[in-house]
Automatic annotation (TrEMBL):
<comment type="similarity">
    <text>Belongs to the DNA mismatch repair MutL/HexB family.</text>
</comment>
<dbReference type="GO" id="GO:0032300">
    <property type="term" value="C:mismatch repair complex"/>
</dbReference>
<feature type="domain" description="DNA mismatch repair protein S5">
    <location>
        <begin position="207"/>
        <end position="323"/>
    </location>
</feature>
<dbReference type="GO" id="GO:0030983">
    <property type="term" value="F:mismatched DNA binding"/>
</dbReference>
<dbReference type="GO" id="GO:0140664">
    <property type="term" value="F:ATP-dependent DNA damage sensor activity"/>
</dbReference>
<keyword id="KW-0227">DNA damage</keyword>
<protein>
    <recommendedName>
        <fullName>DNA mismatch repair protein MutL</fullName>
    </recommendedName>
</protein>
<comment type="function">
    <text>This protein is involved in the repair of mismatches in DNA. It is required for dam-dependent methyl-directed DNA mismatch repair. May act as a 'molecular matchmaker', a protein that promotes the formation of a stable complex between two or more DNA-binding proteins in an ATP-dependent manner without itself being part of a final effector complex.</text>
</comment>
<keyword id="KW-0234">DNA repair</keyword>
<dbReference type="GO" id="GO:0006298">
    <property type="term" value="P:mismatch repair"/>
</dbReference>
<dbReference type="GO" id="GO:0005524">
    <property type="term" value="F:ATP binding"/>
</dbReference>
<dbReference type="GO" id="GO:0016887">
    <property type="term" value="F:ATP hydrolysis activity"/>
</dbReference>
Length: 335
């Protein structure tokens, strides 16, 4: 017999693609806060996010009449049809996050728009509404997620230790802080402030905070613009390298991504200034059209319509650092 699955089952299955671990929940909610135009975002977690995640923003909020709708599958205010997919400027667009998160946790949202006098508090557990009330609230949105995977014990078992899950969240907040220097982030884990940025737009400040003096002292600015592409940020001179690509922070149209073409181009831009199997530090933002972000639900990969164009320009942007007039003191390899 062929069965048509009910909504709850469908949502739980879909949730598996979006919500892998606490960090994926934090990523989705933070992306919503960023898309909402927030300038201040606070992330609080307890026990690596497995017991509690609370994210508060001062963004546009959700109108009372739309709050329930936001939790439906494929509910999004960010695109209307597939035609919008090629010109996406927002981080979200699938309309799957809130429904997926609510399907596998106990979720409470308090939200208020600037135009409305009161806000809404909405609680939804395992995909089922448990409370809806109008209440006074500041402008913006705050979401609390408790008991991740409480109703999918098989998945709960796959969670790693609180410290491992917490480390994933911490890394994620760091990447988002680097790619959104105009937003003031505060990250609190088990009551302790782990990261606080001021939203001043200064990338070097954040790199200093996250990576310390050694890397900060070696930073060179990248400010590259050609027809159809803009590359900006910082790259560290080859005196600071690592044996993995961990320090290559690449942001494409506001998204943190892992991308082999860009990584390779950056490394080739260093040429023989890099020793074999050594990789540089960078925090580089790429702005260009022709990027397909619809490759994977978690959106860590992108596809370029013109890979060679991206490769060539990236390599050139890095090479320019080394040929610039203000010639940086070059440190010969091996010294
Ligand atoms: P998507 O981000 O792909 O649109 P989500 O399920 O993450 O889908 O969110 C659904 C909708 O809820 C969003 O399109 C947005 O309109 C609204 N929303 C979610 N979080 C926020 C927030 N923090 N501030 C304002 N609106 C939000
Ligand atoms: Mg979203």
């Amino acid at each position: 017999m062929i069965n048509i699955l009910d909504k709850n089952t469908v949502d739980k299955i879909a949730a598996g693609e979006v919500v892998e671990r606490p960090a994926s929940i934090v990523k989705e909610i933070l992306e919503n806060s960023i898309d909402a135009g927030s300038s201040l975002i606070t992330v609080e977690i307890k026990n690596g996010g497995t017991d509690l995640i609370r994210i508060t923003d001062n963004g546009c909020g959700i109108a009372a009449s739309e709050v329930k709708k936001a939790f439906l599958r494929h509910a999004t205010s960010k695109i209307i049809s597939d035609k919008d997919l090629i010109s996406i400027k927002s981080l979200g667009f699938r309309g799957e996050a809130l429904s997926s998160i609510a399907a596998v946790s106990r979720c409470e949202m308090i939200t208020k728009t600037k135009d409305e006098l009161t806000g809404v508090r909405y609680c939804i557990e395992g995909g089922t509404e448990v409370e809806y009330e109008e209440i006074g609230a500041p402008d913006g949105t705050s979401i609390i997620i408790r008991d991740i995977f409480y109703n999918t014990p098989a998945r709960r078992k796959f969670l790693k230790s609180a410290s491992t899950e917490g480390a994933h969240i911490s890394e994620l907040v760091e990447k988002l802080a680097m790619s959104n220097t105009n937003i003031a982030f505060k990250f609190i884990s088990n009551g302790q402030i782990k990261l606080q940025t001021n939203g001043s737009g200064n990338l070097k400040d954040i790199v200093y905070q996250l990576y310390g003096k050694e890397i900060s002292k070696a930073l060179c600015n990248v400010d590259y613009k050609k027809d159809g592409i803009k590359i900006s940020g910082v790259v560290a001179r080859p005196e600071v390298t690592r044996s993995s690509r961990n320090l290559e922070n690449i942001f494409v149209n506001g998204r943190y991504v892992k991308d082999n073409i860009i990584s390779k181009a950056i490394e080739d831009g260093f040429g023989d200034r890099l020793m074999q199997h050594q990789y540089p530090f960078c925090a580089l933002k790429f702005e260009l059209d022709g990027v397909d972000v619809n490759v994977h639900p978690r959106k860590m990969e992108v596809r370029f319509s013109d890979r060679n164009f991206v490769y060539d320009n990236t390599k050139e942007a890095v090479e320019e650092i080394f040929t610039a007039q203000s010639a940086i003191r070059e440190v010969p390899i091996g010294k």
